[in-house]
């Protein structure tokens, strides 16, 4: 992901994160930082976000022969789909919409992300975006359901969006570095580890 695409992703994360709604009360500031920390405190959330970043860095069948710019665009599309679906899931939860099997969906997303990485599955841009969105929806629902008492939903969402954007960028950068040094085995090993964690957590 080049600097221009990194800037685009950061801009998207900032646009989705409604920081302007943050007042100067203790509850809202606390809610913001709780949102920032939430993805880091759950291994399932952390691993999926890094894994999606790694998957976004991989070359798809469509872009295998394409220039780096197209690969960067694919990474942006996948990351954007993930962020948007997370917001949608969080808003549904905050609104009190009951969605069944959220925890199971999170575990399936962890295992699926790991398997896809381990098998080095390649995606078109649309398929990658749909995959990322399907994973993110469940994680967004969980984030929204765990909104701290007295915290502002907007500042809490802003917090976890910032962390999620950083994790997606980190995963994409790691994947691109591994690819640059012909170390695709690293991504495969990471995929096995992520899938194994998902299976362990499900047992």
Molecular structure report:
The protein is mainly alpha-helical and 203 residues long. The chain has one domain. Helix content is 77%, strand content 0%. It contains eight helices and no strands. It has helices at 3-16, 26-41, 43-57, 68-94, 102-118, 125-145, 153-180, 184-202. Helix 1 (3-16) runs parallel beside helix 4 (68-94) and helix 3 (43-57) packs parallel to helix 5 (102-118). The longest helix has 28 residues, at 153-180. The protein starts with a helix and ends with a helix.
Structural class, by secondary structure, is mainly alpha
The parts where pLDDT drops under 50 for at least 5 residues are 19-27, 60-68
Helical run tally: 8
User: Which word captures the global form?
Assistant: globular
DSSP strand tally: 0
Q: Any idea what the radius of gyration is?
A: 16 Å
In total, the number of domains comes to 1
Instruction: Summarize the main sheet.
Output: none
State the distance separating the first and last CA atoms: 37 Å
Could you give the topology of this structure?
Blueprint: H1 3-16, H2 26-41, H3 43-57, H4 68-94, H5 102-118, H6 125-145, H7 153-180, H8 184-202
Q: Quick recap of the structure?
A:
With 203 residues, this protein is an all-alpha fold. 77% of the residues lie in helices and 0% in strands. The protein has helices at residues 3-16, 26-41, 43-57, 68-94, 102-118, 125-145, 153-180, 184-202.
């Amino acid at each position: 992901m080049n600097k221009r695409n990194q800037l685009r992703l950061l801009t998207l994360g900032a646009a989705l994160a409604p920081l302007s709604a943050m007042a100067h009360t203790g509850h809202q500031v606390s809610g913001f930082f709780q949102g920032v920390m939430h993805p880091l405190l759950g291994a399932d959330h952390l691993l999926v976000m890094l894994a999606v970043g790694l998957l976004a860095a991989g070359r798809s069948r469509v872009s295998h022969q394409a220039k780096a710019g197209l690969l960067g665009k694919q990474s942006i599309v996948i990351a954007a789909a993930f962020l948007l679906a997370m917001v949608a899931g969080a808003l549904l939860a905050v609104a009190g919409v009951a969605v069944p099997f959220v925890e199971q969906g999170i575990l399936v997303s962890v295992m699926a992300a790991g398997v896809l990485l381990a098998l080095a599955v390649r995606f078109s841009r649309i398929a990658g975006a749909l995959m990322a969105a399907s994973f993110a929806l469940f994680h967004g629902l969980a984030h929204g359901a765990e909104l701290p008492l007295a915290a502002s939903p907007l500042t809490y969402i802003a917090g976890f969006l910032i962390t999620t954007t950083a994790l997606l960028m980190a995963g994409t950068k790691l994947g691109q570095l591994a690819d640059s040094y012909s170390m695709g085995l690293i991504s495969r090993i990471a995929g096995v580890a992520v899938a194994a964690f998902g299976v362990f957590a499900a047992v």
